Fold this protein.
Amino acid sequence: MALVRYVTEMGMGTDVHGGDYTKAAKRAVSDAIRHSSLNFFRALNKSPGDMRITVRIGVAEPDSVDKAAVAAELPYGQVTVEPVLGGLNVPAAQGNDLLVIANAAVIVCFEE
C-alpha cells in the first residue's frame, strides 16, 4: 500500500530562556495543530488512529530533541519524529542564556 499525504501543517515554537530544544519543538508542534480540525475521516472510511504522521523538527541541535516527548504532543496516529538541522539560536545580550526557535512540519498521510 502507498502512503498518500492529506495534510501538511507548519508551526513555530520557542524556549525563551534556557535553550531547551525539546520544549521549543513541542511548542512548534502544538502551534502547527492548534488551528486544525480534521473532518474527513468518515469520507475516507478512516479513523484518527489510521493516520501516519511525520513530524519534521528544525532546530540548531537536532540530537538534543527528545523525540518521544515531541511525539506525545499528538493525540492520535502513528507518529515519527525527525529532528533536522534548522531553527535558530538567539544568544542573550549578556550572560549565557539562549533563546531557541524550532520549526515544525506535521505531515499526515493514510495508507491507500
The beta strands are 3-15, 52-59, 78-85, 88-91, 98-111.
